[in-house]
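Methods, example record. To illustrate the input and output format used throughout this study, we show the complete record for DALR anticodon binding domain-containing protein. The sequence lines were provided to the predictor; the line carrying structure tokens was produced by it.
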Amino acid sequence: MSELHTFKEQLGKYLLRTENPAENLIKFEVNDGPDFCFTINLDLWANYFKFEESRSFNNNILIYATDNENNDEKQAMDALKNESEKFALKIDNLEVKNMKCFIKLMRNSTFKTMFKSIPSEDFGRAQKCGETVSINILETENSSITNFRLQTINLVLKNLISYSQYTLTDDSTADHKVLLTTRSNFKRDNECTNSDITIVCSVVRDMDRNNKKISHQSADDYMKKRIDDMHLMALHKYGVRIKSDDNFLKLKEHLGTAAGKLDMIEVKHSNPLTLTFDVKQAFILYNSARIETLLKSFNEKVASGYYQPLPELDDIDMNLLTDNEEWILLKQLMLYPDVIKNSLGDLKNGKIGLHLLYKYLQHLAKAFSNYYSKKKVLTENRPQLIPILHAKIHLLKAVQTIFNKTLSIFEIEPVSFM
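The corresponding predicted structure is encoded as:
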């Protein structure tokens, strides 16, 4: 269970004074401002949970939680803050306004907690339940771009299952047998009766056909065009210098293939996909490369003696990370386990949300780009700047880990082309 989910569960149980989960009534705020909020209106909570006490508690869930005889809201807030010392994440301060409680977390301890958790192989992974899943793919006999979309969904879904409570198997006796197909009129009664879950991948359409015609271009032709498009985007938008060596040609091909995979997951699998050859995919890959380049440059400067080696996490003062962009970036990282869980969705009922992975990469790239454009990371080697630099490097290493974990689900290797 993630730190974010654990905190919400602990807070909910504290407020209700029961073991009932209440995290759905506690909202995590990703952008600037408070980190969590929830209504203190006891009547609204009573729509979901039964309260047996007869006193009104001033219609305030905070007072109810502490059973404060004086009905003192300030004392109730202080009690919650003190209790949070036992939570997965610690509370720095609380504010009540317009019948809502707004929570800000303690930044130093939250940064360190997450930076210790994120590198773990278990971060974002559910505990296995012992149930198995097999996946079969029913392709049409052509090399169309729609088939390529189906194959990409198959690839991503299989990699996602490794994060889930299920275990992937090829065994025909799997507990849950998934069939992937592009055929919306597929009849399980007539064929592939061994499958109990059907996931339909909708068609790919050409942009220049007014969204009415299915694309009949081959996957190979599409990929060649995507490679050329990514090359031009890199040249025009990001100023990548033209090279003709083999390494650059391999890089071009890698970026085009990566963009093609991201294209296929951009919208929900059950919705038609219109090919737009958008720059958003280049934006994701470019910001991943930025992080790789920054960390490579830092390591090279350490090796040359210009910078001191990166101290252990416990020796870093995370209070030096004071910028809102840094905190927003961390909160994006905290979302990763929930994004993984939601992307797999309700697999048993054939409902998945692989497009949520794509959206998450977009949001993470945007958060990092905003941070990078406003804050200099690799500073001069001055005694007063090095502690801040080291704190920032730990942040970048966490961002790199989540970027690479997410891209690996698409089987995309990170690259540096700056």
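Annotations derived from this record:
The chain is about 45% helix and 10% strand.
Strands lie at 27-28, 36-39, 91-97, 100-105, 132-138, 167-168, 176-181, 197-200, 204-206, 273-275.
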